Amino acid sequence: MVISVSSFLRNHPVTLTSEYDESNDVTLNTRKRTSRKSSRLSAKTNTNNMPYVKGANKCDLNDKNFASDKLCASDKTCEGDEDDCREAALRLLDYAPRSVIDMRQRLKEKGYCEVVVDSVINRLIELHLLDDNQYAQMVIRSCVARLLGARATRMELHRKNVNPDAISKCVELAQNSGVFTEAAWELGRKTAQRTKNLEPLVRRRRFFAAAARKGHDLSVINEVYAALFMSDNE
């Protein structure tokens, strides 16, 4: 029986073998990888000597004035930061007097750079808006009003970040003027009045405890106790 070619092909269609498919796939994949690699090499060659600047296009990079424009913008930013820093410092001084160290720390906490902070603080010192000696004297007057002694006053000045030289100078002047001794006597008079109906030992304990908390010298405490409490006991 004779079978025609067309009839044979209809009954037995031609199919590609898996070997042929895999060969074609490998060839296509190889061509794709080669094409991508060539594109990357071409792009790298075109931008080999071009500096990267965020937000800048090709025209900006080729502009001769690009660097100078960036410097000018930086200078304007510094000027703006200094104005803002000065306003922030004045607001802090409006709220309360401050020491130089405290002002410096607060401005840095607000995010201003060290150069700007130094410039603003130096200007405030020139205008006598920041003065550690005057600030220390103000703190000492406040401490004496609270009947604190020299030791407690020193601790308060250190807590407020006053310059150590200003602390030594101002506390010594206050001691020589007798303000801490007078504060101890005032504390003794108030304690004696409050405890006049108590036992002698209780009165002594309460006065010594209060005077120690206030930071008075032991020699002054003994002197005040002998004058105000022992005479009452007799």
Automatic annotation (TrEMBL):
Its main location: cytoplasm. Residues 30-39 have a biased composition (Basic residues). Residues 131-168 form the RecX second three-helical domain. Residues 85-124 form the RecX first three-helical domain. Keywords: Cytoplasm. One of its GO terms (biological process) is regulation of DNA repair. Signal peptide: none annotated. GO terms for cellular component: cytoplasm. InterPro entries: RecX_HTH_1st (IPR053926), RecX_HTH_2nd (IPR053924), Regulatory_RecX (IPR003783), WH-like_DNA-bd_sf (IPR036388). It is found in: Cytoplasm. Residues 27-49 are annotated as: Disordered. PANTHER family: REGULATORY PROTEIN RECX FAMILY PROTEIN. Belongs to the RecX family. Modulates RecA activity. This is Regulatory protein RecX.
